[in-house]
Design goal:
Largest sheet: 7 strands, mixed
Distance between the termini: 40 Å
Strand content: 15-25%
Membrane topology: Single-pass membrane protein
Number of strands: 9
Pathway: Bacterial outer membrane biogenesis; lipopolysaccharide biosynthesis; Glycolipid biosynthesis; KDO(2)-lipid A biosynthesis; KDO(2)-lipid A from CMP-3-deoxy-D-manno-octulosonate and lipid IV(A): step 3/4
InterPro entries: LipA_acyltrans, Lipid_A_LpxL_LpxP
Enzyme class: transferase
Radius of gyration: 19 Å
Structural class: alpha/beta
Protein name: Lipid A biosynthesis acyltransferase
């Protein structure tokens, strides 16, 4: 363990440690000033992060063909501002005390989650990657404890930080490949948060429409629910304007989920996710290569 920590002090991680130190200091500012700082950081990043800007441009062109080039450019600029705020919000989630942020949460549909837990079969909470993920995860888990399925980060300092803080604030994080642990946790009538909206390649994925684009969609949530009998709900979230906090919305129980048709299950999820994205498009994670994996014979899009 000691050697692993010493590895994190390698010079290649010094820029990461410096950045984290700056983020920690920023969390000492008022909430509104922190958001404004993040917004300005996003404005600058739009011009500096050309690779991510390129990915965002392609995604928005694919998903919003009805918009003009100018409208998509404006939307992408807002996306980067939202990303900047999301970075600062992650720091808030890691380091700000509860009494400073607990009042920022607004929840609708909690009764659906309570009903799901009362069925005593475990709850699979399907969600997606929006820019305020970490802060909303921390805020919501303070009123409803849950596990979170995570994907390891390439930067070991960031990976360790995320796991430690999510374990402290969210409950135990579970690696996405820990299939037995996920199944065991659901059978213990626990709630697991699972974001099913990233491209993990063709293995364990099916192609399902998302914004009318054939999209590689991981089908493991359907199989987890089928195998355990877990109750399935959706949870989507967004940042409110004018520093008013965050809205978290739990959808009704998906009664027809896990009835033996993985395609229909994930089509249902993609449709609900698309509705949430269209409501607040600038807050979705458009810099992810969501359409990287293509059906056989289709060209690479990025």
């Amino acid at each position: 363990m000691k050697n692993k920590f010493l590895d994190l002090l390698h010079p290649r991680y010094w820029p990461t440690w410096l950045s984290l130190g700056i983020l920690y200091l920023i969390t000492k500012l008022s909430y509104r000033l922190q958001l404004q700082f993040g917004k300005n950081l996003g404005r600058i990043s739009y011009y500096l992060l050309k690779r991510f800007r390129h990915i965002g441009e392609i995604n928005l062109k694919l998903c919003f063909p009805e918009l003009s080039n100018k409208e998509r450019t404006n939307l992408l600029k807002k996306q980067f501002q939202s990303l900047g705020m999301g970075l600062i919000e992650s720091a808030m989630a890691w380091w700000m005390p509860d009494h400073k942020i607990d009042s920022l949460i607004h929840v609708d549909g909690l009764e659906h989650l309570q009903e799901a837990i009362s069925r005593k079969k475990g709850v699979l909470i399907l969600s997606g990657h929006f820019t305020s993920l970490d802060i909303c995860g921390r805020l919501f888990s303070s009123i409803f404890p849950m596990y979170v399925v995570y994907r390891e980060q390439k930067n070991q300092v960031i990976d360790r930080l995320l796991k430690q803080h999510r374990q402290f604030k969210w409950m135990q994080p579970i690696h996405r490949h820990a299939i037995r642990q996920i199944i065991k946790t659901l059978k213990q009538n626990k709630a697991i948060w699972y974001a099913a909206d990233q491209d993990y390649g063709p293995t364990h994925s099916i192609f399902s429409p998302f914004f009318n684009i054939s999209t590689a969609t991981i089908s493991t949530p359907s199989r987890y629910a089928s195998r355990t009998g877990a109750t399935v709900v959706t949870l989507f979230y967004h940042r409110l304007p004018k520093g008013e906090g965050y809205q978290i919305t739990i959808g009704p129980i998906l009664e027809n989920f896990a009835q033996g048709n993985d395609y229909q299950d994930m089509l249902c999820f993609n449709q609900l996710l698309e509705q949430a994205v269209r409501a607040h498009p600038e807050q979705y994670l458009w810099i992810h290569r969501r359409f990287k994996t293509r059906p056989q014979g289709e060209p690479y899009l990025y």
